């Protein structure tokens, strides 16, 4: 929580002074009581004493004053507000290594399921596009609010080929620009399970996206133990390791002012996509909550006054 006018809070320094004045007044009352009657005779003069109740209304008033000073400083809290006109491109690696089964049942199937979870988290008015890339990127769906069309596009993905992350970022940026122009909030979510093997430099294209205010959020999918079976020259097959390259993806995210994530399980990947869906579909805004503070302070002040009237027949 923050305050729009924090200097007003300096008025809180007066509270210790008021507390000190109240304590001095209580000491003066005790002195007057001793002058009126001997201490051993006081129980017969005033057999019923308020004890702790004497201080409760004053305590309520003091807390109420502190809250009202806070209200005068115009308190604010940060809330998540849906972005109605944002555009997000989901770029999914569909290279041959996505057939690895270290992320059950396969990396690509897990990626498809996570992408659908992403769609469920993104606010309805956010435009989402779908891209599949290996050595050649393909825009399967331009950014749209049609979630059923997005699910159908995700279902079309099939594995094969190499990886060209730089080409994917460049094509995603073009698709986002054509959808909403340079002023529309936009982002790219790039999922890959390995380093780029062809095409333009992904870090350079990510920097271009960052300069255009389009951050790239990267997700490194898979484990170091991931393998695929590939044909061997001359016949037969060979098992090939296909570990992810999180450091390369982290660099892409960094230069574009995005964030990077690593997922080694299907559940972990779904959690990342759900978080991104909520995060990218909202922006953080400060909202003033002065009325809440003022209402609470006035209620507490009324309570203190009511208690004082009931118990002592006076307001304070």
Write the layout of secondary structure elements.
Elements: E1 2-3, H1 14-36, H2 42-45, H3 56-72, E2 75-82, E3 87-93, H4 107-121, E4 127-133, E5 137-144, H5 147-155, H6 165-180, E6 186-192, H7 202-211, E7 216-221, E8 227-231, E9 237-241, H8 246-255, E10 260-263, H9 266-280, E11 282-288, H10 290-312
Parallel strand pairs: 3-4, 3-6, 6-7, 7-10
Antiparallel strand pairs: 1-2, 2-11, 4-5, 8-9
Helix pairs in contact: 3-10, 4-5, 4-9, 6-7, 7-8
What does this structure look like?
The chain has about 325 residues and is α/β, with parallel strands linked by helices. The protein has ten helices and eleven strands. The strands form three sheets. Strands 5-4-3-6-7-10 form a six-stranded mixed sheet, sandwiched between helices. Strands 1-2-11 form a three-stranded antiparallel sheet. Strands 8-9 form a two-stranded antiparallel ribbon. β3, α4 and β4 form a beta-alpha-beta unit. α4 runs antiparallel to α5, α4 packs parallel to α9 and α6 packs parallel to α7. The chain is elongated, with a radius of gyration of 33 Å. The two termini are about 30 Å apart.
Q: Can you count the helices?
A: 10
What would you say the CATH architecture of the largest domain is? 3-Layer(aba) Sandwich
Listing every helix as H and every strand as E from the N terminus to the C terminus, the arrangement reads EHHHEEHEEHHEHEEEHEHEH
What's the N-to-C terminus distance?
32 Å
Q: Give the % helix.
A: 40-55%
Main attributes of the structure:
elongated, alpha/beta, 316 residues, 2 domains, six-stranded mixed β-sheet, Rossmann fold, three-stranded antiparallel β-sheet
